[in-house]
Amino acid sequence: MTTQATGKPLDRVDGRLKVTGAARFTAEWDVPNLAYGAVVSSAIAHGAVRSLDVSAARKAPGVLAVLTYENAPRLQPIPEKIGETQFRGEGGITETLQPLQTAAIEYAGQPLAVVVADTHERARYAATLVRVAYEERPPQLAMAAARRKTLPEMFLGNNKEKLQVTVGEPKSALAAAPVKVEQVYESAITHHNPIEQLATIARWEKRGGADFLTLYDTTRGLEVLQEVMATSLGLPKESVHVICPFIGGAFGAKGWLYAPPLLTAMAARAVGRPVKIEWRRQDMFAVAGQRAATRQTLALGATRDGNITALQHNTQTHSSLSSGFTEPCARLTRMLYAVPNIGFVHQLSHLHLPSPCPMRGPGETVGGWALECAIDELATELNLDPVELRLRNYAEKNPETGKPWSSKNLRQCYARGKALIGWDARNPQPRSMREGTQLIGYGMATTMYPAGRREAQARATIFADGRALVQSATHELGNGAYTIFRQISADALSLPVERVRFELGDSALPSAPTTGGSTTTATVGPAAQAAARAALEALKNLAISDPASPLSGAAPTAIEAREGRLALKANPARGEEYGAILRRAKLPSVVATGGAKPGEEKEKYSFYSFGAVFAQVRVDEASGSIRVARLCAVYDVGRLMNPKTAHSQIIGGMAMGVGATLMEATHYDPRNGRAVVRNLADYHVPSCADTPDMQVEWLNIPDPHISELGARGIGEIGCVGTPAAITNAVFHATGQRLRSLPLTPDKLMRA
Fold first, then answer.
1. What's the predicted TM-score (pTM) here?
2. Which 8-state DSSP code applies to residue 350?
3. How far apart are alpha carbons 330 and 265 in whole angstroms?
4. Which of 158, 240, 249, 520 has fewest C-beta within 10 Å?
5. Burial of residue 497 (number of CB atoms within 10 Å: 0-12, 13-18, 19+)
6. What CA–CA distance (Å, rounded) separates 236 from 342?
7. How many whole angstroms separate alpha carbon 738 and alpha carbon 746?
8. Is residue 716 flagged as an active site residue?
9. Angle, nearest 10°, between helix axes 643-662 and 722-734?
10. Positive or negative CA dihedral for 726, 363, 454, 193?
């Protein structure tokens, strides 16, 4: 079998569809007889609805129905767990609050009513006519003042991870350490803000006399959403069909919060026709999730020659009253460096705020920022080069479990990153480099992310005309999934990539998990390979059993696929094209399914990706404004499936890291818990002018243990190390330590 496509920088197969407007996103589906929903949201953060006057709204032109907690359908409780997704319990990854079920209010922006009308404009107007009277109570909005505080034992994401851990004797080791650093690092609430906003279209129909629901939804968890909807609405799972072929960005959103699709389905059932609800940008700050604020205390102890002997990492973060999601800030602390005595604690404050959820690099982005800034502070205390300090504490195996790494080449990342940025040519003394009124600084950080893999299924079809189709219920978030899975499938089928199509985004396709945790390539890629090989085996059996085939009677193991043909390994001239086998059998196609999942390797090795990020900043001394001039990063992420799409993924993550470092923050009114940002004019994200020159390189060394592909996920690692590299560069430029994200000019001027 020849390798034709995998590893090549092919253009995105969905690129032309997107730039011409032909790619169909959720809000763009043309569904006949469509009605439109508009949501009335709570203006308070805590209390209850005393009364809802919907009489004027019901009389407004074009209004079909108004749903409130008084007349909305009763929903069945969401179970404790669906598949790999934990809903209930402390540490559960999502919330359990279902919309329009009670008068109670848990956060500002909570949906209180849905107005359905024959046009979007009429629905929006009628929604303004709904009058709500409240029984308002003082909300709890500050972590320190929360009445309900918990110590969740587990982070219940892709894998169960302990959130309260002690290894060795960190307390006594810190007390005995000759050199100590202890600091507090704080990060603001930040929102995902993908360009595509949340949207759902719900259509009910009768199939075989029973209710059947079709949902077009901006989801990256087809199967979990299907299960949530079926359970909540009292339907069999197979009576819910979820469709989402394109997602216009997610970054952690669009996977864990279920009020939008539930509201739409209830509204459609009430009016007896399809309904669309498209959420406004200002609504996204309440219903789409966000990264929780954190307050992290890090204490490090070391010998005078730079060996870290103790590390304590305590995190305070928040969640809503109906979620136990915890920002797992110590995910890097537990294994990044060879430290014999480690302790970490996560304390969760439950507040009257919207539920947080995973955001690109959950735990690692802000937790890694705090850790890598603390490491930099220790390097300053020891008068050591920051890279040298990291090398002196390099972990040759996972310090927590003792397992060997499946593959780790981080030293090479450090060395190449130093060369790219010109690290050794800088003056290491803080505040020693300037150009005119600008202070110049260099900083670096290690980046690291779990290399997960889960179970998935796929289906492969080989057609008589020599084309092929591979399908799996995975997702395209704008990350290039259509392209790389087409490449992987083409190689597995031994066909030119232009003769293979890959389909995804439909719950009717073979099962695949929620896209998240940088696991999709390593999960769905092997499943696509398995399905393709099963289809080739079926084709072999057809040829072997056909007396007219040149392969008649051959052993399956003696036959190989090459360039769209089956042929004898010992005599490649003896064989025939796939289409000839099918046409002679009078078959339009051959179809096979296949699956893949982690095996014993998961217990033998520790799977992580690594990298080193280096930053150069320019700080205006008069105004305190910070500009990132350069970012240079080198990554060890296994084998690349497509360098072009990988480059886009990584620089997108790095740009998001720039935003998290310098500008992104969501502020809430301390009196009523309402977000005081409403759009992208209020909530700043990096523009082209804010985005620095970014140099990205890869080691491209296959991981020999994760799968035959040797690929690890790359969706989040670009975001993780960037904030610390920039923050450390600001210290080198100014001599001032900033320990609160984002690094806005006012903080620098006050430092």
1. 0.96
2. E
3. 39
4. 249
5. buried
6. 47
7. 11
8. yes
9. 50
10. negative
Task: Give pLDDT < 50 ranges for the chain.
Answer: none
- For residues 447 and 720, the answer to whether their CB atoms sit within 8 Å is yes
Give the pairing type, strands 35-41 and 275-278: parallel
DSSP letters, 537-596, are HHHHHHHHT-TTSTTTT--GGGEEEETTEEEESS-TTSEEEHHHHHHHTT-SEEEEEEEE
Can you say whether residue 299 is alpha, beta or left, with left for phi > 0 and alpha for psi between -120 and 50 degrees? beta
Instruction: Give the whole-angstrom CA distance, residue 266 versus residue 211.
Output: 13
Please identify which residue in the block is written with the tokens 């350069």: 630
Alpha-carbon torsion, ordered 652, 656, 657, 662, to 10 deg: 140
The pLDDT of residue 494: 97
pLDDT value for 88: 59
Spatial contact of 507 and 223, defined as CB atoms under 8 Å apart: yes
- Closest Cα to residue 213, out of 186, 189, 231, 188? 231
Q: Is 262 helix (H, G, I), strand (E, B) or coil?
A: helix
> Of 87, 34, 85, whose CA–CA distance to 64 is shortest?
34
Closest CA to 253 of 194, 319, 296, 204: 194
Encoding tokens for residue 540? 């072999």
The single-letter code of the amino acid at 356 is P
496 vs 507: CA distance, rounded Å: 28
State CA 105 to chain mean position distance.
29
- Considering Cα of 119, then 125, then 131, then 132, what sign does the dihedral take? positive
CA 1 from centre of chain: 34
| Distance from chain centroid for Cα 414 | 26
Candidates 327, 476, 503, 716; catalytic one: 716
List alpha helices for 393-544, DSSP H.
Answer: 410-421, 481-493, 520-544
CB 551 within 8 A of CB 544: yes
Cα separations in angstroms, 245 against 218, 472, 536, 593, 678: 9, 11, 27, 21, 28
Say if CB 685 and CB 664 are below 8 A apart: yes
Beta bridge partners of 344: 165, 313
**Which residues have C-beta within 8 Å of that of residue 230, sequence separation ≥ 6?**
236, 237, 239, 240
| Amino acid 85: pLDDT | 66
Query: What does the alpha-carbon distance between residue 460 and residue 529 come to, in Å, rounded to a whole number?
Result: 9
Residue type, 122: R
3-state secondary structure of 371: helix
Neighbours of 519 (CB within 10 A): 21
Give the pair of three-digit tokens for residue 338: 């060879």
Cβ neighbors of 415 (< 8 A, separation 6 or more) are: none
pLDDT at 3: 60
Cβ(448)–Cβ(717) below 8 Å: yes
* 700 conformational bin, left if phi > 0, alpha if psi -120 to 50, beta if neither: left
Number of other residues whose CB lies within 10 A of the CB of residue 245: 19
Amino acid, res. 245: P
Tell me the chain's radius of gyration from C-alpha atoms.
27
**pLDDT recorded at residue 87:** 65
DSSP, collapsed to helix, strand or coil, labels residue 8 as coil
Q: Which domains does the chain have, with CATH numbers?
A: 15-22+454-597 (3.30.365.10), 403-452+605-751 (3.30.365.10)
pLDDT (0 to 100) of residue 676: 94
d(CA 641, CA 526): 12
The token pair that represents 16 in the structure block: 């032309």
Going edge to edge, which strands form the sheet with 35-41?
63-68, 111-117, 35-41, 275-278, 199-207, 210-217, 240-243
Cα–Cα distance measured from residue 714 to residue 479, given in angstroms and rounded to the nearest whole number: 10
Instruction: Return the residue matching tokens 């509201």.
Output: 263
Please name the amino acid found at residue 216.
Answer: Y
C-alpha 201/C-alpha 277 separation (Å) is: 7
